[in-house]
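Q: A small favour: would you put together sequence and structure tokens for a protein?
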Amino acid sequence: MRGRYARWRLTQAGGLARDSFFVALYQGATTVADLLQLIVITRVLGLEEYGRLALAMATVLIIGQLFDLRVGVAATVVGARRIEEDRKRCAGVFQFSYLVDGATGIVAFVIIAALSPWLGPELVGKDGMLLMVLFAITLLVSTVDESSFSILRLFDRFPLIAAANTTVELTRVAAVVGAVIVFQSLTAAVLAMVVGRTFGGCLNAWLASRTFRQATGSSLVRPALDQAAGVRREMWRMMLHTNVVSYARTAQTQLPTVLIGAFAGPLQVGAYKIGMAAALLIAKVGDPAYTAILPRLSRLWSEGAYDALRKLLRSVALVALPALIACALLLIVAREPALALLGGDEAVRTSQTVLIVGALAHAINSGLFWNGGLLFAAGRSAFVSKLSVFATVLQVALLVPLVALWDAEGAALALLITFVTINAIATRSALAMLRRTPADH
């Protein structure tokens, strides 16, 4: 039995399981930190105050996403190819990634700061401008994290990511909880978030730089942008596509918050966010595999190892969707104690339907996590971006009437319909593309 397990660990599926385990550790730390933050803010400051904070965060994220090109996917796909060719000549790819990440982060912060005097008081109310600017700083100081993570993942430093980010999340939640309890204000809570994110951004960049030097013998600090000259156009094209995809994903989670706030007010926003926070536990189960699979798929595709790729995806498909649906059903059964823990009796009264519908939506979306990764690895980023635009349009078209009719429950239903539709299309396209690959390299 021990020998069979050791052999399985050396397979692609075993390697993915190992990487996913470590991703689950640090993403689990983030989830626990977010839930503790939610619980403390809701219990100390109230559900309506949490709704105001959610509105400020959603508005900043939506605006910031317009300028965030999400360069990590391009750096992973192109970097995997360059590493295969010459490890010492791939520094330029990642330097270009950091440059784009940093520049777009600064532009996003300036735009948010300029819009906050108008949007903050209108959407958030008291101290709305200040809350938006402070939360925008948290995005600015962590803007290059995606580039740092792409390096650490490509060089299989998943245990290091897990250790570092568990430390970062513990620091962040301790700062936020302490600030809320001591000062009992949203402003203090967001200032504590700034401290935690600044620490995390600096630590991740240092670890990525050290890892790159150890793996390649080259420095990320020494100028090498000319080494990326041949792939910049490809990276720009992929970044534009991934920006569309990322904005669509942000819109799927943040637009409902804004529309519910406009139609029904902060209390319904709080009800929606509490229900979705519980439902997102299902997504968190699938997120580690989604994060870990892209570097592996990119390497297999660039090597032409199509048989190994097909075998890996068969293993994933047999486990992922049934497991996620089972987790969703367990959460639905335990919805009342889960909601009571997150938001108290008021959340139990207002958020049960949101949790049920949201859990099913995230089970389907997370259970089919591999379809987008395969399309990206194969260079089909244009198709993924078009599909994401369609998903956003579909969700907005559903949100307006459904939120007007059923408030938070309508927003959850719009998300479910959108996820079912886009995953059906993406899965069909990914399988058709995989069938066209040759039997061997």
In short: The chain has one domain: 2-435. The chain has a mean pLDDT of 82.
